[in-house]
Amino acid sequence: MQAKRFVVAAVLCSALAALAGAAPLLAQEKIVNPLDYPPPKPAFAGQTNAPPPSKPSPPVNVETIITRIPAPWAMAFLPDGKILITERYGEMRVASLDGYYSAPIAGVPPVKVVAAESLHDVAIDPDFVRNRLIYFTYFAPPPGEAPGVWPLKYFYDDVFKASVSVRRTMRVGEERLARARLSEDETRLENVQVLIDGVNRRIVFAPDGTMFVTGADRFRFYDANYDGEDHEVTDPDILRNFTGRVIRINRDGSIPKDNPFLADPTVLPETYSYGHRDPEGAAINPATGKLWVVEHGPLGGDEVNIIQPGGNYGWPNVSYGRRYNGAPIAGTGATQKPGTIQPIYFWYPDVAPGSAMFYTGKMFPEWRGNLFVGGMAARALIRLVLDGDRVVAEERLLTNLHERIRDVVQGPDGAVYILDDDGQLLRLTPKK
User: What does the DSSP 8-state code read for residue 119?
Assistant: First the structure.
């Protein structure tokens, strides 16, 4: 019955998928065309509009492995070559490269689907062969509320009608990271444990064994006035605790002893960086070991950031985008402020980045060390060629498919695997 309920809800609320990552967007707010406004000036050469690479990508073969996956969000390869796939309407399944797609895995906690909130990322523990642990992020309904799909206004319009003091008493739901043991037969989750609240986007394992998790701006907990005259947020504790964050924890949920804010009792101890908006893509650069994050701007201003411990990335006071009605961000439209870190790259207008991956395989030698971004609004797989920490070229692939690319992962065979919003699992290999 649960699976049927979510499928029906998915049909009734399919418009939510198109808004994923576009938060906050009020039901009554008219969206304008970013091209009606002059593009923002970059802070340095090469920060946007990089030229095409001198050597284009080789022709690729696109193989469809699975079709009609209900609203996929993320995937992760298991050691046996199968793939765990999460669906935004609260299901997790196992897929195999011969086209098999399992029934929903039992034991997934209740999920609330509203706006861009849902079941999101899944990651496999580095010691999975020994412990069979997986990690996943999701939006949990408040106590006593059944899982289900809610109209957009319940997360945005109804919140912004209330004062901050009332908002903070609203039981809308909770962003959450959990871990569980995947049963030997891959049909159920066992021993589900909530590790931390407040984040529910991407999960990345760091080279030192700790874990980064990204979370979107929690605008409902502070006076973020998107539906009126916009203004600057000056309280440092609000910025560090409620804007979009990257957190860093150990795999058991404990706090690393070298996290940047442990000496400040007013900052949540897991916080690693802040001032993000909606960081839906994240990956470790194998050349440096640093975390790179790709995040949604508002109307334009999608960013690529290299994460520094304790860093302030500017939101909601600094952005290369605009509000959805065309007004400048924070009243001034500032793209730079002292104490904030510049993105190494931004897009205007939007590409709506859904994922990020550094390619390290042998199947595509031309791509080694490149950063790939799944573009939803761009309807393309975006290839960024790097020189150290700078983007020197941009190429858009698979534009002929006209698909919103949700997730991109390198497989153990060196092929590139893609989930799109039409529910397809695709495999990219060199065309012979």
Answer: S
Query: What is the pTM (predicted TM-score) of this model?
Result: 0.93
**Per-residue model confidence as pLDDT tens for the chain (432 residues):** 344 333 333 333 333 333 344 445 554 456 688 888 999 999 999 999 999 999 999 999 999 999 999 999 999 999 999 999 999 999 999 999 999 999 999 999 999 999 999 999 999 999 999 999 999 999 999 999 999 999 988 888 888 888 888 988 999 999 999 999 999 999 999 999 999 999 999 999 999 999 999 999 998 898 865 544 567 899 999 999 999 999 999 999 999 999 999 999 999 999 999 999 999 999 999 999 999 999 999 999 999 999 999 999 999 999 999 988 888 998 889 999 999 999 999 999 999 999 999 999 999 999 999 999 999 999 999 999 999 999 999 999 999 999 999 999 999 999 999 999 999 999 999 998
Terminal Cα distance for the chain, rounded: 46
Residue 24 to residue 28: CA distance in whole angstroms: 12
Q: Where are the alpha helices (DSSP H) in 59-147?
A: 128-131
Taking the C-alpha atoms of residue 99 and residue 406, their distance in angstroms, rounded to an integer, is 19
* Cα 223 to Cα 39, 175, 358, 423, distances in angstroms: 28, 19, 37, 37
Omega prior to 256 cis, within 30 of 0: no
The domain of 54 spans: 2-430
Number of separate domains in the chain: 1
Q: What is the DSSP string of 248-276?
A: EE-TTSPPPTT-TTTT-TTS-TTEEEEEE
Query: How many C-beta atoms lie closer than 10 Å to residue 289's C-beta?
Result: 10
Please report, for residues 90, 275, 379, the alpha-carbon distance to residue 85 in angstroms, rounded to integers and kept in the order given.
11, 29, 21
Please say whether the beta carbons of 304 and 270 come within 8 A.
no
What is 276-306 written as a DSSP string? ESEEEEEEE-TTT--EEEEEE-SBS-EEEEE
Domain of 314: which CATH number?
Answer: 2.120.10.30
Separation of alpha carbons 262 and 266, rounded Å: 9
CB 356 within 8 A of CB 372: yes
Strand partners, 66: 425
